[in-house]
Design a protein that fits this description.
The complex is a heterodimer of chains A (about 350) and B (about 525).
Chain A lengths: L17 H8 L17 H5 L3 H17 L6 H26 L7 H17 L4 H24 L5 H20 L9 H8 L1 E2 L2 E2 H19 L1 H11 L1 H6 L4 H27 L10 H11 L11 H20 L4 H29 L1
Antiparallel strand pairs in A: 1-2
Helix pairs in contact in A: 3-14, 4-9, 4-12, 4-13, 4-14, 5-6, 5-7, 5-12, 6-7, 6-12, 8-12, 9-10, 10-12, 13-14
Chain B lengths: L8 E10 L2 E11 L4 E5 L6 H8 L7 E6 L2 E2 L5 H6 L2 E4 L11 H5 L6 E2 L2 E2 L1 H14 L16 H14 L5 E5 L7 H16 L3 E5 L3 H7 L2 E6 L2 E7 L5 H9 L17 E9 L7 E6 L3 E6 L5 H8 L7 E6 L2 E3 L3 H8 L1 E4 L14 H6 L3 H4 L8 H13 L16 H14 L4 E5 L7 H16 L3 E5 L3 H7 L2 E6 L2 E6 L5 H9 L4 H21 L1
Parallel strand pairs in B: 3-10, 3-11, 6-9, 9-10, 15-20, 15-21, 18-19, 19-20
Antiparallel strand pairs in B: 1-2, 1-4, 4-5, 7-8, 11-12, 13-14, 13-16, 16-17, 21-22
Helix pairs in contact in B: 13-14
Classes of the chains: A mainly alpha (about 350), B alpha/beta (about 525).
Chain lengths: ~350, ~525
Amino acid sequence: MIPKLIWREPIPTTTITSGASAASGAGGTAPAAARPRRRVVTLGDITGRESGGLVVLLVAVGILTLTSNEFLTTGNLSNLARQVAIFGIIAVGELLVILTAGIDLSVGSVLGLSGCVTALLLVRGMPILVALLLGVALGTVLGAINGLLVTRAKLPPFIATLGMLGIARGATLVITDAKTVQGLPTGFQTIANGTVLGIPNLLIIAALVTVVAWFLLTRTVFGRYVYAVGSNPESARLAGVPVRTVTISVYAISGLLAGLGGILLTSRLGAGIPTAGTGFELNAIAACVIGGASLFGAKGSAIGAATGALIMGVLNNGGNLLAINAFYLQIGIGVLILVAVGFDQLNARRAASSG
Amino acid sequence: MSTPPVPVAELHDVSKSFGPVQALTDVSLRLIPGQVHCLAGENGAGKSTLIRVLTGALRRDGGRYEIEGEPVTTPTPAHMRAAGVQAVYQELSLLPHLSVAENLFMGRLPARAGVLARGDLRRRARTALDEVGLQDLSPDAIVERLPAATRQLVEIAKVLTADAVKVIVFDEPTTALTEAESAHLMEHIVRLRDRGVAILYVTHRLEEMFEIGDWVTVLRDGGLSEAGPIGDYDEDRLIAAMVGREVSSLYPEVHRDAGVPMLRVRGLRRFERSPSIDLDVAAGEIVGIGGLLGSGRSGLLLSVFGAAPTAAGRVEVEGRRVRPGGPRTMMSAGIGLLTEDRKVLGLLPELSIRENVTIASLRRDSRRGLLPGREQSQEADRLLDSLRLRAGSYDQPVSTLSGGNQQKVLLARWLLTKPKVLMFDEPTKGIDVGAKGELYAVIGDLAARGLGIIIVSSYLPELLGLADRILVMRDGAIAGELGRSASEEDVLHLASGDGGKAAAGAADAVADDGTEEADRDS
């Protein structure tokens, strides 16, 4: 390698369009004159990278509506919403981490631990609100520890959160003695099982989480920093982005949402189950990827992650309704992930060659 | 020299162009067994292109290439290695995690039925290491843990293990070495020469050429400047042959008056034992920093910017001390840095042009953590317009832009922060000539508007054309300061450190001249 010595090789510049030079000719006072050239409005322009996911979702919903009488019933839909909601909440947290080019494998275990700790506290008679806050706080702290391991101890995110996966699950089994925690107050159980105006609480909470995350990512400085860190952390640092704080924050938020998910799952099931959330991390990652997120960071959106979770939920739900073997469904979702990412790669390559 | 020596490798009128840029024009080179042939020239003169043609890494456009009289028809790296042309690069090609022996025979490890023959490997490695004087080095040592000089010797040993080595190209082999290590390496090169190997030696250090060279070829702007026995040259003649060019009129012809001090750096040390550096930049002043690759220029900028750790020193912006606290603190104090490697240390490739521009100013213009409103993006657009950025839309990803336009995006990013001092590290690297001129004009303009500017450049005409004052670095220290009227020779003398005190004296004289001239101007 002799890059430092090589001849300054020419890099082709884009041709000067007359429009651009006229605009700059006005001494730089011209208004934002960069107009896009020859654009065809596509679905992608409107919805961004989630477009593929939305298409898949609409197709799946359409097919199910036609093939199953039960799909479009209130009972099934609210059932579907309950199934998908917790999942979507976890996926949104996972998305934030993935946007920084990290990964959080511990969300399933943290969910289990937070859920069981909350259940144990409730059984011991702690007020619901306090137990709830403590459960969420626990998830947040565990997430922040992940973030510290990544930023301070410089562990690869995969390893840091893999360690946390084991620790949190083990801790759950220790404190519960691997037994289901039962006898939760009914007040607590209504959190996840109740409805407002016929809409399941869980769906409302999941929608709220998605909207907040969407706002955070698209309208706040923090959100922009998240994308910057995922795009190139060194460049971001040199542009004054507090890379470390941002990184710790996304893991903490992921932990927070995992904790929230744990509480909601405990509430929905009416019991603290030590093995709850096993394997959720991979489903959350799958939802993000199906929803257009790139594991290399800086690409993806909250809506996309939620859509991804919804697609997986709809496929599972539809599979049940149509009595498709659940094992085949697993194969189907696996293929879907490969197709989603494969299409993305194809698009990227096409864009690169035409640009 | 009674009978004309027979060259082992010979280039005749070789040309090579990259698109519109002619990198080599009709260059000839004769490598003779038992001779050290030095290749001299500035950065960008075509030395590396020539080496890459020689080793088969590049295909020549025109001219002839012969090895022992046989024309070379298929110049691929593998073919050239087989023909006996080997190269030792400045940046080593060893695999750091593997052992010395494995590195020596990588690609042709002795094996029986796919199982590594460890004894055989070790024996053969031993012989190869003994040959370069590394009797004490174990073949099992891991390359990563070896000092740079030893690695360099292992690299040479690797080259020698090839069958029938006829030509060895050394591309700046001493850049990473200390004086003593360099001297050691020189001895080995002399020994190789005495064994009848033809050596092509490329270096920026003139004294090394005079030490071991037999013949010198000087390239300039891709063409052959001069060639002859090294005995016919002294340093001044060599430098004149390397430079011999006028500073082109690309550069803004402005006379500025340095105003109040903007940046003061005192006693900056990067590490405990590194030399202490002082640096001043006044408003409206362009300070150039020259020096060889690896002389510590980029490191200095990163340290001032707080992006690299420092052991000691204080930085003042407009007379106020800035406590070290990373790039964020320096940014808020009014310093901006455009890094040399835009891809690795600058751009956010997935983000749009506009997002890349505003990223450093989001916090300042933000209310309650929300993204700043339209005013900021309009200001960004205005900056981009005034820099004549060529893009279809400012919403497209920044990675779709060319090098020159990417540099403009980064410049806009820093201008949006309203800096007091802007530091440029190799601002025109990888940028075509047209965009260069524009960039120079902008830099001149910024200085005229009262910013303090620091420019690090390896490209001497650029440094001389832009800077009011040039600091030359060598081995991490400031070797001297030159005035506006300095010549490329002065910079090269200081940078390569020949002549010691004499050069420093000359530099003082030149600096004096510079101030006198400035006085006359004002």
